[in-house]
Amino acid sequence: MRKILAAALGAAFLASPAFADYPERAITMVVPFSAGGPTDTVTRLVAESMSKELGQQIVVDNVGGAGGTLGAGRVAKAEPDGYTLLLHHIGMATSDTLYRKLAYKTLESFDYVGLVTDVPMVIVASPKFEPNDLKGLIDYVKANKDKVTYANAGIGAASHLCGMLFMSAINTPLTTVPYKGTGPALTDLMGGQVDFMCDQTTNTTNQIKEKKIKAYATTTAQPLAALPGVPTAGEAGLPDFTVGIWHGIYAPKGTPKPALDKLTAALQKALQDPNVVARFASLGTVPVTNEEATPAALEKKLKEEVARWKPVIQQAGQFAD
Questions:
Q1: Pick from 114, 185, 197, 257: most CB atoms within 10 A?
Q2: Residues in contact with 156: Cβ distance below 8 Å, sequence separation at least 6, in sequence order
Q3: Is the separation of the CB atoms in 306 and 295 below 8 Å?
Q4: Where are the alpha helices (DSSP H) in the chain?
Q5: How many Cβ atoms sit within 10 Å of the Cβ of residue 171?
Q6: Structural domains present in the chain
Q7: Region 222-245: what's the mean pLDDT?
Q8: Which residues are the signal sequence here (predicted)?
Q9: What is the pTM of this model?
Q10: What are the b/e assignments for 268-294, b being 16+ CB within 10 Å?
């Protein structure tokens, strides 16, 4: 019934000359994480620029909880009229395996606007933590695995995913300390309450530059200009350890194509905005190309990443109800 109603609504919009004026009111863009985190930062930068292009404000609504699935579920159930969007990261793909029950179908409940950015990650530690380089970190955690603590921002968070890959890469399980968001995890990391973590450059670059935390390596193939002197994991002794936290914008399934087309065009314009480009650069990332900021590219990326992460998560055996 929902699909029939969505199709009827889309047909009505297509037939209405008034739809040429879309959007005629504010648009809500849901971030499925708490305010102040890396995905929230990306969203607010992009939303502000897209608002200028669309001529209507995009209001950012933080709907955190359950590794991003609560916010995604809210958008999946929203009216497919172009006025409710979701900006989510790689967790959109991993939650398909991490969670035994979801209130939506990852590959069936959404339409696509486009990719936004692929944010690098960096392995960081408390200033009080003994190891000073990545090789020293690996040797230390292997020798002290029962007392070393790895912080993450909760199941499904970027830091959780990177941690699973790291433990798999060094074949050493560690004590993980989950937090309700990146902010409190970083606060305890800076204070020495936990030892180390791996998180997005959008949330760690400033703290690294201010020497509030120490950096061991980035998860990129090439060094980052925003973090001079920080080697890649491959350079530092952990070959093939690369992971990026990509972000995309979604709409409820059945959103009329004219709305999606306008949103994609506004996204592409926003990603060329000099202010957005400069702010992204200061955070260690870059906007995707116009070819990637499309519905087809995002759909392809999501399908590939669901397939990529499923065996990793199943091997780690870390699931949520």
A1: 197
A2: 66, 67, 68, 69, 91, 94, 95, 98, 99, 320
A3: no
A4: 2-15, 38-54, 69-76, 91-98, 134-143, 158-170, 182-191, 201-209, 257-270, 274-282, 295-316
A5: 7
A6: 2-119+245-316 (3.40.190.150), 120-218 (3.40.190.10)
A7: 92
A8: 1-20
A9: 0.82
A10: bbbbebeebeebbeebbbebbebebbb
Q: Concatenated DSSP letters for 91-122? A: HHHHHHHHBS--SS-TTTSEEEEEEEEEEEEE
Q: Taking the mean position of all CA atoms in its chain, how far away is CA 256?
A: 26
Mean pLDDT of 160-185: 91
Residue 300 CB neighbours (<10 A): 14
Locus of tokens 């939650």: 95
Give the three-class secondary structure for 177.
strand
- Comparing 17-26, 58-67, 155-164, the range with the smallest average pLDDT is 17-26
According to the model, what pLDDT value does residue 318 have?
A: 61
Structure-block tokens of residue 240:
């093939």
Q: Residue 256 carries which side chain, given as an amino acid letter? A: P
CA distances from 289 to 41, 193, 286, 293, 298 (A): 20, 40, 9, 6, 12
Asked if residue 77 lies in contact with residue 105, where contact means CB atoms within 8 angstroms, the answer is: no
User: How far, CA to CA in Å, does 115 sit from each of 42, 76, 119, 265, 298?
Assistant: 12, 18, 12, 12, 5
- For tokens 């995707």, the residue is 288
